[in-house]
Write a structure and sequence with these properties.
The chain is of the alpha+beta class. 21% of the residues lie in helices and 46% in strands. It has twelve helices and 35 strands. It has a 35-stranded mixed beta sheet that branches. The relative contact order is 0.04.
Length: 651
């Protein structure tokens, strides 16, 4: 019995000496030993600075100062993990039983860099090459050990998380606090993270029910909830080790602009009707090459409901292809009044102050590339309401083309396209054809002119350049044509001006109207207007200042039948600003016409007297200048004949 006690005592003494030696060993020497062991097991360098402290029971642990753990040889030069301090502890009793129960991993101010390239992850480790004289069997017992691995507590404070895929940084988050737990192999792995962002913090709750299956590369269930200032995102589906996922998603925002600002998109304005508050759900698929597919999407954007599907390629900028359907889309409540003009809305040009001189921010044209098709029963925007419409928006490097296939507008249909280009300064243009357009609605909405009504067709090409509304309107160039059926011009009565009785109450009713025009430097010119009325026709020519918002136009009515002296052709000049033009008879034209008539009358009277005098002298009747010439010629021949007879002695 004594020998057994001596053996136990000797074992304890030796163990105590070993532990004591480790505890009394200088920290730099202990750090060197630990680094060598990590290098042998993982093939990576471990650099430790400051004091290294060990614990042995019940937790086999280590606490260090600054630490850096090397990256994979094929990855970047930055370490995979670096921290200001690191504490690691494992359950000593479980370790003796063959299980690895990690009690804690705590890091202060760490940077964790995860890299994936060609299917390899830098979190996958291989042992270092055995040194000479070391058998492979001696180098691999740890790898052959089979046992449970669990994690009670992982805590990263003020961390930076970087994810690099195939050499491109996909995510880089600062100021992250992260805690994770996986207490049992059959228990779910849970992760909680918080990241400080403008306006507050983003909280992430993640659950993987089967971590061993996920770690093997098989797609497993995943639940993620992301709560940010202004809204929440939830995903419930599957994920694999490469980050590919598919499942149901749900985005709910109470303040979309605030949520966008939290994710680095501060200053992006969301118009009322396009999701200042939003509720979006659908089925999403994300693949390793950065492609997102959304199907069965239902989006409640403020009071508007949109359904459809979309495909998005995550790039710079994103590539979007979408097909959307909406019922009655109401965007009319969006107030576009710039700062300093509160109370104004874009219900058409402001009549008194002219076109806006505020800079136009067209930077949104660069946010994405792609093609978006929208079908809607109606689309209401400030000042306009489109009926059933099929619109396609093509976006390409800060250039947007809106194709109408067709669009119902002003009670008619509009086909063609409108272009906005912000690649090197802003320009807008279009090539449009209209059928069955309500002229009064169109002119009121587009130019604030409400004096002409009727239904018309036409075509219009235009181009404008500038950084403000005023600059664009003053630079407009192009051409077009308009044909209108029966209609009314309010504000003047052509019948009354022509001296006929009028029962139209200060309006002119016409049967048809046609005109072509050209645009140059914001000035519209027309010289072939033709208006057909019951008793007259009216021709027109002049200019309309689109940029200056003024008009100088002349109507010239012509009686189609004699009016028994009741009327006189009176040209009408329309001149002045759009908001209050002057419509008056052009008396100068009347006087010119009257003067020309009087001169002609005097000329005719003098001509008649000359003809009568010549006729008396010649003894013949003369009716015109040709008769005078013939009469003179005949008289000369007659007198010549008489003289010749006298010369010959004849009677």
């Amino acid at each position: 019995m004594k020998w057994l006690l001596r053996i136990v005592f000797l074992f304890i003494a030796v163990l105590g000496l070993v532990i004591g030696a480790l505890l009394l060993m200088p920290s730099d020497k202990l750090a060197s030993i630990l680094a060598e062991q990590v290098k042998a097991e993982t093939g990576r360098d471990l650099n430790l600075s400051g004091d290294v402290r060990l614990s042995f029971w019940p937790v086999l642990g280590m606490e260090t100062g600054p630490v850096a753990f090397g990256n994979a040889p094929w990855a970047g030069s930055d370490p995979m993990l670096s921290a200001q301090s690191l504490a690691v502890g494992v359950d000593a009793a479980a370790l003796m039983g063959g299980d690895l129960r990690i009690k804690r991993i705590i890091a202060e101010n760490p940077t964790l860099r995860l890299e994936l390239s060609d299917g390899r992850g830098n979190w996958e480790f291989t042992s270092a090459t055995p040194t000479e004289g070391t058998t492979s069997a001696a180098a691999t017992p740890a790898q052959g050990q089979q046992g449970a691995v669990t994690l009670d507590r992982l805590q990263l404070t003020n961390a930076r998380l970087v994810y690099v895929e195939n050499g491109s940084t996909r995510y880089d988050f600062d100021n992250v606090d992260l805690a994770a737990s996986w207490p049992d192999p059959s228990a779910p792995m849970t992760l909680e993270a918080q990241m400080k962002v403008p306006g507050g913090a983003v909280d992430v709750d993640l659950t993987i029910p089967d971590l061993p299956t996920y770690a093997s590369g098989v797609a497993t269930p995943l639940t993620v909830t992301l709560t940010a200032p202004g809204g929440e995102v939830r995903f419930d589906g599957r994920v694999n080790l490469a980050g590919e996922m598919d499942g149901n998603f749900h985005v709910r925002t109470q303040n979309t602009e605030r949520m966008l600002a939290a994710f680095g998109q501060a200053g992006v304005g969301v118009p009322l009707g396009l999701g200042t508050a939003a509720d979006i759900s659908g089925y999403m698929t994300y693949t390793q090459d950065g492609r997102i597919s959304v199907r069965d999407m239902v989006a409640q954007l403020d009071e508007n409901r949109v359904t459809g599907e979309a495909d998005i390629l995550i790039s710079d900028p994103p590539q979007i292809t979408a097909r959307l359907d909406a019922g009655d889309l109401d965007l009319s409540k969006y107030n576009t009044a710039p700062a300093g003009r509160s109370g104004e809305t874009s219900t058409g040009p402001v009549k008194d102050t002219g076109w806006s001189t505020d800079p136009i921010d067209a930077s949104a044209l660069a946010l994405a590339n792609g093609k978006i098709r929208l079908k809607a029963s109606s689309i209401a925007v400030p000042g306009l309401t489109l009926g059933p419409s099929d619109l396609t928006l093509n976006l390409d490097r800060s250039r947007a083309v809106l194709q109408m296939n067709p669009a119902s507008l002003f009670s008619g249909q509009l086909t063609g396209q409108v272009v906005a280009n912000n690649r090197s300064g802003l320009s807008v243009g279009g090539d449009l054809k209209a059928e069955g357009i309500d002229i009064e609605q169109a002119l009121t909405a587009l130019a604030g002119v409400d004096r002409l009504s009727g239904t018309g067709t036409g075509s219009f090409k235009f181009l404008g350049v500038g950084q403000t509304e005023d600059q664009i309107m003053r630079s407009l160039s192009g051409d077009g044509r308009m044909d209108v059926g029966a209609g009314v011009i309010s504000g003047f009565d052509l019948d009354r001006l022509m001296g006929r009785s009028s029962e139209t109450g200060g309006t002119t009713v016409f049967n048809s109207l046609s005109a072509s025009f050209t645009l140059d430097q914001g000035v519209l010119r027309n010289d072939d207007l033709l208006m057909s009325l019951k008793n007259f026709r009216a021709d027109g020519e002049g200019r309309v200042g689109i940029g200056a918002r003024d008009i100088d136009y002349l109507f010239t009515p012509t009686a189609l039948r004699a009016n028994a002296g009741q009327g006189l052709s009176v040209p009408v000049r329309i001149v002045g600003p759009w908001s209050n033009p002057s419509i008056q008879p052009d008396l100068s034209k009347v006087l010119e016409a009257a003067a020309e008539g009087k001169v002609k009358e005097l000329e005719d009277d003098a001509k008649q007297k000359v003809l009568e005098k010549v006729g008396d002298e010649l003894g013949v009747t003369v009716t015109d200048t040709e008769s005078i010439e013939d009469a003179v010629k005949n008289k000369l021949q007659e007198e010549a004949a008489k003289g010749l007879l006298k010369l010959l002695g004849a009677d």
